[in-house]
Structure formats: structure tokens, C-alpha cells
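Re: [help] complex structure
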Amino acid sequence: MNRISFFVLTGLFLFFLTLPLLALVLRALPLGADAWFSANTLAALQLSLVTATFSTFLAFGIGTPVAYLLARENFFGKQIVDTLIDLPMVLPPAVAGIALLMTFGRRGLLGPTLSFFGIELPFTTAAVVLAQTFVAAPFYVRSAKAGFGAVDRKLEQMSALLGVSNLETFFRITFALAAPSLVSGLLMTWARALGEFGATILFAGNFPGRTQTMPLAIYTGLESNLDSALALALILVVISFGILFAVRAASPKGIVLR
Amino acid sequence: MNNDWRLETCHSEPSEKSPISSPQSPIPTMLSLHIQKQFPAFSLDISLDAPQEKIIVLFGASGAGKSLTLAAIAGFIAPDAGRIALNERVLYDAARHVNLAPQARRIGMVRQDLALFPHLTAAQNIAYGIRAPRATQEKRVRELLTLVNLEAFGARKPHELSGGQQQRVALARALAIEPALLLLDEPFSALDLPTRVELRGELKTLQRALRRSMLFVTHDLGEAVLLADEMAIVENGRVLQFATPHEILRTPVNARVAQTVGVKNILPASVIDANTLRVGEINLQADTRMFAPHARVVLCMRPERVMLIRPDSPSVERVNTLEGDVVAEESDGDTVMLRFRANGARLQPTRDFDLYIDTPVYVYERLNLAREKHWRVSLKPNAMHLVRE
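Output below.
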């Protein structure tokens, strides 16, 4: 095989990848303002942006200590914890949705307890956030773990020797050096949360303005309002492409670590 | 031929003190280091009392325990037992359960891999440990940049600096906290030779000017001798000898130390009487008064201290002369290393040569050693050093 044939094959693959996107763009671009700015479209867009951002914050809050622990400490069962954390990435989101329902649903594991305190999670916006976090947080933990793991411990030792406390060392050295990985992990998480469908529709339902995020609105739109679905689809394509591109730019490879 | 010589004079007086002893010094003890630590396949048992305001060198092969010792002093690892005190301040004491955090030890460190903070500029690296108001901090950083000749490079990130410049930043950063002791762990090993030579000189000048106590680790003998006010030979987690470089080179305490510091002629011998030593098949004149008759000893003689004499030179009275041939030679560019084999009675009858002789290249050329292979050598008693077997 020579070089040309590799290029030809790559071209074929790219053609296969881009043709559907092109078809989408061709159909969506000429759409009028009523498709782009319909109440339905805007509501789904707003809900998606808000919930995905919330989920990302949540992933950051609970994922950072986990990532640090996994990167730095050895403990019994670490392999299992590692695998568990990666599991949602390969699990069909529908499985995640049903599992969440079995946990937080009215007849779920924690349902009665939550009901006692007057908390009803399923089919609320909070359920959307939970579903997204469940599915997307592992992307952050993975990236953050790699980021923390790449920080040379000698730098932390040196910081300590220079009289700087362990907590301050964490922020000024460890966190600062892992930051590019954390940021790219957060971007990936946000993008994944934005695209979440299966877990959301099972656990949170499909209520416009409350739990109908963009992917759900597209699904619904296929039957009722194709123009709105096309507009939302194109918006998702653009956002996703932008995120992936930003992740590349923020990737630790661009930053000299030594 | 008669191989029996008589002792003419002996200037070295017999020493009362034990061969392993710290150098007599009027300067108070800076570092009192007595630690033990057991690893699965290695045990560290270091004992050292080092004087203040000196460059102390830990010299030994890699894996000897030098870096572990520094890690224990810095507080990165805790020994199993023992005590570390710095200027009377206890850093670690197993018996009293004292183990100060690295933050509280006031110790500076520069290591081969530098460990500069890659996301900070040179100036920010140096400022990192300085606890002071901003203005004071900036002034200190400027002073330190000047001290290490990096005035113009404060704004650069480590990866934008050369190896030598990075090394200077690391030194300035370590000095910034006014350390009671500066640890240097093979700081120059990764640099090219000219930079290494330059930085050694600078370090020595700096030390003389600042009068800071330094503990310098190296596996390079030349570097150790050049920098050390006093040096410790470390092997297998133990200090074999602690003395001035001159003393160690001249009078190593045992064959291991001798070998480590480049004494290539290490020959088994036995004492005949107070001034006669038998080496192989030959009796040599030597000061053996420290040893009992018939004692088994080891003769140590540096290869550059074996004297070459032309066989046809006028017969000045020489002691301990052997006649023979240069049977092999190799050169590293500065020094030619010869192997000399005696005719007749031998010092090492079981080997194919008797002595290593090192000679500078210019001497090699002046003596026309390339052509003339037949020589007499003289082993002067004051160049011979005896240690216990």
C-alpha cells in the first residue's frame, strides 16, 4: 500500500463522516426565524445549557477529590473503583436511566426515604442534572486523574521544602499544573451532558421547558416539528465541534510540563 | 638481585587516633546526622558530624545511599531510628518522636532534575518560597537573580532557559529561603562539561562569599575533590571515611575507599619488621610501625606516584626500585595509563603485570614512552600507604 491509497481511504472515511453533517447543514441553514427562534427551540436550548452546566459543576465538585485519590493513592480495590467509575461511559444510557429510576424513583431504593422528606426527583429538572452527571462525570474524572497523575511529585516536595503548606502546594502546584487536563475534562463532560438522551428520557421524562433538553426536543420534533429539530440538531453539531476543538487547544500537549 | 632494602628516613609519625575519625575542626558542628533505615534490599546507616559553613561532599557510586540520605535530611522520608540535628535544632529524633515537616526544616535543595516549577517564570520560581510583602519579595528576587547572573532572564519560563541557566534558577530558589543548609544532589551531572566546570567554580565562589553550609552529593571524584572542604565516602549505605579530600586521597582507611578514590595499585602484603614489607616476591622498604610483624596488610599506591627512572640514568641512590617493561597502555587524552611488569622477582606473580602507572600526556611525550618500553620504577616509601587487610 502506498501513501496515495491511505489518503484515498481517509478521504472516503471523511466523506462518510461529513456527508450527513453536510445534509443537515443544507436542510437547516435555509430555515426561517420561526424554526430557530420558536419557543420550543429556545426553551430546549436554555434548559440544555443550564442543566449541562450544572452537571459539569457537580462533576467538578465530586469528581476532583476522586480523581486526585485515584491518581495519587494505592488502596485495596482501586482497580474495581477505577472500573466502576469508567462504567457509565460504556453502559447504554438507557441502562443508566432505568438504574436511576430504580434508585430515586417513587418505588426505588431511596424513593420512600426521599418521599418522607418531601423530595420527588423523577421527572424534574433535577433528575435531568442527575442523569447527565451520572453519564458524563466519568469523562471529567478520567481526564483529571491523568492530569493529577502527570504532575511530578518532586515538585510538590520542593514546594514543601520551600516552606509552603500542603494545601497551598496543592493549589499553587498540583492544581495549577493539572489545570489543562481539568479544563479539557470539564469541556468533554459538558459536551457529553449536552448530548445526553437515553438516561434523561427514562429518568426525567420529556416535558417541554422542564425536562425536554435539546436531544429530547429533536426526538420529539421528528414527529411534530421537523424544522425545529433540524435547527436544534445544527446547533448541537456546531457546539460539539467547538468543544472538541477547544479541548484540542487546551490539551496538555500544548503546554510544556517540564 | 637483592630485593631487600633498608628504610632511610620516615617522616610520617604514627597516629594515635583511629583511622575513621571526623576531621579536627574548631568550627562548631552544623549537621549531626545519625540515622538508620531498613529497606527490603538495602540498609542505610549513616553517621556524620559536619562542621558549619563548609562544602561537605557525599561521594560514592549511584545506589550507595547518598540521595536517600538527602531525602531523610529534607524530611521526604523518615528514618527508622536515629537523630538529625541542624545547628543544634533537632529535625528528627526517633527516641523523642520528633519529625519536623519539610516546611519547618529551613533546608534548600537543588537536584539534578532541578524540579523547577514549569508553569512559573524564573523570577516566580525564586519568589515562590519568600514570605514577605510584595516590595521586599521583588527586591530579594532581583538580588538573587543578580547573584546567579540571571538579571535579564527573570521573565523566562524554565523551558526557555539553557540547562546551566535553569541550574542557576534552582540555586537561587533554594537560597531564597535563607536555608540553614543547602542540599545539592548531583546538580551538575546532566550538564555538558564546560557548563559543569563553570558552575562548579561559581558554586565554590558563591559558597565562600555567602558562607552557607552545603551538602553536595556526587559520584564524580574530580568534582568531589574540587568542591569538598571535607568529604564522606559513602558505600552500601555506610560512611566509610570522612576527612579532607587530601587526607582521603593520601590515606584511605581501607582498600574499598582506596579503590573508590582512584588508588589503582592495591596489593596484598605482609609485614616483615618495622621497616620492611613483603609484597609478592619482593621486600620493600616501608614504614610498617603501625602494624605488628607478620600482619597481613594491603599496600595502596596511587598510580601517578610511581616514579619512572631511565634504566641508563646515573645511578643515584634510589629506594625500592624495580626494573621491567611497560606492557600495555591506554590514554583518556589527559593521562596515559601504563601497565608495568617487573623482570625477575614480581610484586604480583599471579598477574600479567605488577603496577599501574599514570603519567600526564606531556610527560609521556617528553620521556618518549611511545618508543622506550624498558624502565626502572621507584616506589618511594612516602607514596606508599598501608591499610589493614
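The radius of gyration of chain A is 22 Å.
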